[in-house]
Amino acid sequence: MLDSLDIARPYIQRSNALADSLDHKYGKVYSEAITGNLFEKLNQYDEALVHLESATEMFYELQLRREWVLYTIKVADNYLQKVGINKSHQKLDQATEGVIELESPSLLRVIYKSRADAFDAQRNVPLAYYYFKRHIQIRDSILDEERLKFLAEIEKKSDLEEKDKVIYQLEEETASDRKLIILLGLAIMMLMLGVFVFWVQQRNRTLKDV
Prior knowledge:
Layout: H1 5-22, H2 25-41, H3 45-61, H4 65-81, H5 85-102, H6 105-121, H7 125-209
């Protein structure tokens, strides 16, 4: 769809037909959703709404909550294009309730952006500014959280590398200690062997004298 809507269309229609013939529920809902996306990109909002509304109902029935919220927002955006601002707000209210259940800041950010667009279309500048600001705040907080996670991963990696160095040093020291113990053992054995040889020689001399 990114390269050519005309090339995408027959594949979308084929996926729809295949999902119907197999009575594949997940195939049906995703095919319906993609069909809605296609008409939206073609700016055919009436057709888009038919398929997107159908997709949201099926997402809800299949208990795919995240997808239901995302496509409810899409429905709201398409109503906005048709100047159905009140209907757009109603859909965004539904999506907001779904986000509260999911506890998903990233989805809430999308809702705030759609709210800002809806109020902007109504020429309600204060509310448009308010929701756009909320959208920015959540976006920045998500980015900050991602940065913190990234830094934590780097720190963790650094700690692991440091631990690896310490372990390597300990292993080197252990190996060195083992070598020293072996050398000391060999030295003691040589000393004992020398003492034994000396004792044997002395004994032989004594026996010879006797």
